[in-house]
Design the sequence.
């Protein structure tokens, strides 16, 4: 049903739990495709023993290269990008499929809704602590409570787990490798979808995953994604999130073009900022 692309970098115990949750909690069979960065911690041999599809680089290629390599192996119509420190919950795929089949066409970008243990003031997630790592993870408690946590569908899908039609993945060219190792690559991909005519960036409240939060990103030297986004698109990420995607607001239907007067002021502000860079 889905081709699920998961980059992983010497994070064996987390990717094992992630794959186990997909196999255990999915209603449909999905293709799981890893991109293994390095893999000397046992990930490479484990993936072979599990007969998983994967691509491999000897060192950390970053998110953008990783997801593009793995997506080249996709055999299903829908490509999902998921982090290796996620645990999918029952009905996650059924709810995404229900939302997909209700659409008139394939030009959409959906996200499942994350449950996270720490509050980072992200209006798109549910904050509820069921463990900050594998040693404190309370799986049974999570399985008993996740469905009752209040949340409604929201605007602004860009963060994994995201899903798009394979056709549009190729139309926009996947993730932009100039943003390697990957800071701001999510918003950049969403902007490319916007430029391809997508106006449905919907977070599905009833499709839920638990996210342990950034178990790999603290190990990398980060690119200046905000500056790169500004220089590439001529607007700030905050402008895109607030005035295009309306991130975190309640979903009521396809998004509209930003107000012209607001956008003009934001573009002027961005131009002045670019001149100072």
Sequence:
């Amino acid at each position: 049903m889905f081709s699920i692309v998961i980059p992983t970098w010497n994070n064996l115990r987390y990717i094992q739990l992630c794959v186990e949750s997909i196999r255990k909690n999915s209603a449909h069979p999905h293709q799981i495709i890893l991109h293994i960065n390095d893999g000397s911690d046992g990930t490479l041999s484990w993936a072979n023993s599990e007969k998983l599809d994967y691509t491999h680089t000897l060192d950390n290629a970053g998110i953008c290269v990783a997801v593009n390599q793995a997506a080249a192996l996709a055999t299903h119509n829908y490509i999902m990008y998921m982090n290796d420190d996620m645990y999918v919950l029952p009905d996650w795929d059924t709810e995404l499929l229900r939302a997909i089949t209700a659409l008139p066409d394939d030009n959409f970008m959906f996200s499942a809704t994350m449950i996270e243990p720490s509050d980072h003031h992200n209006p798109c997630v549910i904050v509820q602590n069921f463990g900050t790592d594998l040693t404190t993870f309370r799986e049974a408690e999570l399985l008993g409570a996740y469905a009752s946590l209040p949340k409604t569908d929201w605007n602004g899908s860009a963060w994994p787990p995201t899903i798009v039609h394979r056709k549009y993945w190729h139309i926009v060219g996947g993730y932009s490798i100039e943003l390697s190792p990957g800071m701001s690559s999510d918003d950049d991909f969403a902007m490319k979808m916007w430029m391809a005519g997508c106006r449905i960036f919907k977070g599905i409240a009833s499709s839920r995953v638990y996210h342990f939060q950034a178990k790999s990103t603290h190990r990398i030297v980060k690119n200046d994604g905000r500056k790169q986004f500004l220089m590439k698109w001529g607007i700030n990420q905050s402008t895109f999130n607030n005035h295009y995607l309306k991130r975190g607001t309640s979903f009521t239907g396809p998004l509209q073009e930003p107000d012209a007067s607001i956008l003009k002021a934001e573009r002027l502000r961005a131009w002045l900022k670019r001149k100072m860079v």
The CA atoms of residues 241 and 247 lie 5 Å apart. The chain has one domain: 2-276. The longest helix spans residues 260-276.
